[in-house]
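Bumping with the actual sequence this time:
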Amino acid sequence: MLKLRLALVTCALGGALLSTAPAEAARCGGDFNSFIASFSADAAQAGISQGVISQALGGVTEDPGVLAFDRRQRGTFNKSFEQYVSTRVGAGRIKAGRAMLMRHASLLSRIERQFGVPPQIVVAIWGLETDYGKGDMGKLPVFRVLATLAHDCRRTELFQGELLAALQILQRGDLTLRDMVGAYAGEIGQTQFLPSSYIKYGVDYDGNGHVDLRHSVPDVLASTANLLKSAGWKAGGSYEEGSANFEAMREWNRALVYRKTIAYFADKLIEQ
């Protein structure tokens, strides 16, 4: 799933992320350290403390592996639905998902009442992204990844916005620097939020004062539902292909095959 999210990040989120970027974007390309110095000045003007900037960006280096991966992943997702779903929705994942529906039934019911998104959709996304938080959430330092992609001139405004949002997560105390690890486009947590989405849609659902999308199941599930509600999800509506709710899932992932997989998986979770 991480590869697919990176391939689609530009078309899916580009417009939304520009508002997160510093008003005066640092100049991309050229010397990496000079770029970081310029971006750091912009971040300070945007309200990020010098302590947080130094903690996150002090000594940060460019990662050629991230750029290589990015170049390999650009393009159209070309698997058929049948090919993709056969690798993503198996008996074991369905069984585990049904167990999660039972284990978190009260929480998921409360989330549905508040956000209008049914439990099976939230759990399907959770399962597909990281096997309910037990799978791969990514192991790359988020600030190294985002600084690398921001320095690259192809999508510098997009990723400068993400880098600033990542600094905001750290400054708010939602995650520690040690927990700021993720995937190849800087996705974080159990349902793989980009930092800008973390800031925009993250919900402190366990009431501890922080949005923790790595460790807090209530925060993870409520934030996922909040993203869909904000994208236009209608409570009680169908989510089959062609419906308004299926369209709302474009904010999660614009790939038709992936949205069909979410819907298919959700139906399997509640199948009698």
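The tokens above came from a reply further down the thread. The first helix runs from residue 2 to 17.
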